[in-house]
Design goal:
Largest sheet: 9 strands, mixed
Helix content: 25-40%
Number of domains: 1
Structural class: alpha/beta
Number of strands: 11
Shape: globular
Strand order of the largest sheet: 3-4-2-1-5-6-7-11-8
CATH class: Alpha Beta
Radius of gyration: 19 Å
Strand content: 25-35%
Order of helices and strands: EHEEEHEHHEHEEEEHEH
Distance between the termini: 27 Å
Number of helices: 7
Bound molecules: manganese (II) ion
CATH topology: Stationary-phase Survival Protein Sure Homolog, Chain: A
Length: 260
Amino acid sequence: MWEEYPPTLRISKKNRFSERESMRIIVANDDGFYSPGIYALAEAASRFGEVLIMAPDGEQSAMSHAITIQRPLNYRPIKLDRFEAYRVNGTPADCVALGLYHWGGADLILSGINLGSNLGHDVWHSGTVAAAKQATFFGVRAAAFSLDLNGDEPDYEALRPHVEAAIRELLEADRPMLVNINFPQNPQGILWTHQSVRAYNGQIMESEDPRGRKHFWFGVVPLTNPEEGSDRWAVEHNYVSMTPLRSDLTDEEWLRKLRR
Ligand code: MN
């Protein structure tokens, strides 16, 4: 997998890579810098290396892999405990590109922890996953972290050992470039899974405004009976789901048929 990606960053303003001993980890998200999830992830990541936080200055959920090209971007320092942190007036993908620019590279990019799971087709809409994907476009290993919400207030302190276990799993030798990780509220272990794509949970819901005019919401319907071994199945059975993803979407089976 590694060989497919350029060994050097094309974006770097300066590369301080080789001078460093400890691992450099950029933490981004799509919920914005005020989300408790990003702080929880930064805390866990700081056990493994130096952390830089780059987060959108507002909610950017479901922005997918959008990048900002019609107006200038900026990033401004914010106070986030002991971390070097910046808020970005852009998308999750912008945050990662700017983070890599600012540091002149990184060893690992972690995105999240998203408030809400990113399972199955959510991967297409998710800003959390896109931030991680953006990192791999620049040749940096990355993972997206999302927490399944069951109505209770998330307990990030209780989740922390599981987040650290997932990061340790990512750092093992011979691991994929891009991993989509979903946590149940009370994990009992980690499973490598596939993306569940049998059913789609998106649907348009119709309602009315106070003046009687129709309006619409893109809502989510709960899916049942997920395939065994899939991301949704794992989370439903209280396992941390880790799905290796790839950026090449070519349908190889069709390509072989069509080239015959
Ligand atoms: Mn989000």
